[in-house]
Amino acid sequence: MSYYLITLVTNSSFASNFVAISISFTAFAFSPLLFLLIMKKYYKVAKWTVILFFIFFISFVAILTGKDSGIILFFIPGILFPTILFQRKKTILVLTSLIIGVLIVVFFINQIYNPQIITSQSELSFYFISNLMGCAIITLLVIWYFKSTNSEYEKIITEKNKRLNTYNIEINEQKLKERRFFEYLLNKLPTDVVVFNVNYKYVFINSEAISEKKKRDALIGKDAFENDNKRIPSNQIAVKRKETFNRVLKEQTTLEWEEELVFDGKKKSYLRKMSPILNENGRIDYVVGYGIDITSRVLAEKNRAALQEQILQLNASLEKEVDQKTQENIKLSEKIVDLGNKRVQLFNWDKSADQTWDILQNNIQNARKRIS
């Protein structure tokens, strides 16, 4: 309301002038209303009241006093009022456009309409100079407001940036500690552990997979398929790993397989697994690959299979030998039976001897059934 006070002060020497008194009275009458709205916390109503009062009051006074009074100059700082009072860009743009439109309309009306309310050239000059000074003061106050507001915002932003930087430093330090801790644990595991990103590039390699730290560091960010092709003579192993990796990405599940590698002329067997690491959105961030040396188990299984084969061959050999011995015994028993029958016929043996020979024949038949 500074420009209204300035209008009152500059017009006090023209107290007899009806226009000056009317302008001053209207400005002071509006102030209590605005104060009441602010006290009642009707901030939005107060803002819109200020804007509408400014537009209509300045337009009305500018038209009544004419173009030479300089009242129209108050539209210049008035254009900045929406930026001060409102925060929404759309509202600011609409109100600013409205004020500019009203300014253009009032300007053309002043060019066409020449009011006779103020006819004295000295009064018009005084009005013009006082309004020009009031407009300059209000404009400077608006500029000061923006500058002080920007300074406060800069302080707030600087303070928040400092806090944010401190917070980021603390978070990074915490993440670094966690990373070192997990790297320490993973490096102490008695198994190969490798972490890939979704592009099948190395993110982490533990010391069990590659013992030399320089080689591990050199591979970080490199393509795993290319490295496998260079390091492993058999291309099938690299292709199998890449195919398994693609399946893990597609199916989002853990897959395992066995593979055989040759180191320094010695064959080693590994049980490999790949597992997806999902984020909060259910998407894969990383894939963890780990392998266990199962050479001892594979050799034990092969030895057990060989031993079982030897046992089967030995059993077959023993069964064959038993069958041969049984056939020989059957043939010998048959000869004994034939010889006994001949003796019975020659010496007329009794019935008890017949029973003995019947038992012997039954035993021979049972032996043949077991063989068959």
Number-wise, the strands total: 5
Number of helices: 12
Could you estimate the helical fraction of the residues in percent?
Answer: over 70%
- Measured by DSSP, the beta-strand proportion falls in 5-15%
Task: Report the span from N to C terminus.
Answer: 125 Å
Unreliable stretches: 1-16, 346-352
- Oligomeric state of shown chains: single chain
User: Strand order, biggest sheet?
Assistant: 2-1-5-4-3
Q: Sum up the overall morphology in one term.
A: rod-shaped
Radius of gyration: 54 Å
Specify the structural class.
alpha+beta
The largest β sheet comes out as:
5 strands, antiparallel
Number of domains: 3
Could you explain the architecture of this structure?
With 372 residues, this protein is of the alpha+beta class. It has three domains: 2-157, no CATH class; 189-293, Beta-Lactamase (2-Layer Sandwich); 301-371. Helices cover 70% and strands 11% of the residues. It contains twelve helices and five strands. A five-stranded antiparallel β-sheet has the order 2-1-5-4-3, with helices on both faces. The radius of gyration is 54 Å and the shape is rod-shaped. The relative contact order is 0.05.
